[in-house]
Amino acid sequence: MAKLWLTYAWKDNEDQDVDHVVQELRRVGLEVGFDRAHIIPGQRLWTQIDQGISDPQTDGWAILVTENSLRSEPCLEELAYALDRALRTRGSDFPLIGIFPAPIDRAMIPSAIATRLYVNLRQSNWARLVADGVEKRRPVAAAQTVARFVACVHQVDGKEILEVRPRSGRWYPGVVGVPKSGPMKVESVMPGPSGHPTLSGMVSSGSGESKDGQWIYTAAYHAIDALNALYVTFDMPLQGQLSFGGGQEGDLHFVDSASIPRLPPAS
What we know:
By secondary structure, the protein is α/β, with parallel strands linked by helices. The protein is 19% helix and 32% strand. The strands form four sheets. A five-stranded parallel β-sheet has the order 2-1-3-4-5, sandwiched between helices. The longest helix is centred in the N-terminal third of the chain and has 18 residues, at 73-90.
């Protein structure tokens, strides 16, 4: 089991926040060493940090980076000195890790940490990233499915405008559909540059039903691609199921409109 030495300001554990960090690091398989009296005001940092770093059984060192642990210029200077000593005695591949509970002014972060691994507690996999760093493993990206399209809703002059486009390839014609039995109807379609909602201009369009008669489609006879989106308005606020994509029914995407991000009104 890999061992991590954790340095922190005692004040940061008044609400057991440090205990939580230790608990989560142990949960991912690390042995965590620490001293309840770490970074005591008025005492030398190096003598406190050296205890953990010089131990040959220690595989990595981390500091909980807060304003309490980086609160003065002398503290920063000695921390930089301690980290330099660590690199000289343990080698350049010795893991030095910064753990950030909250954003910190970049100027306050010692360069030895800023240029190495640092994680933020807002990251859902922060503990695993620390473990990977200590065990010198390449982090494995979590598998995730990325939609083949981009969809979002713009608010323009109090009106909702749906933007849809493919991430790659093109749709020709670009079509959008609503359930025939649903309350919502397509009001207009218009192609335009991605990210710049527009309803102005002219486009050849048409409408029709799906082969099973369950959907009503409106088509814009214009190429829709990664740079050129299809903008759509409806006769009521967006709700229920939608489909959109290319002109062939096999090239359509079916989504719940509630899952489409609503962007704030443009300022």
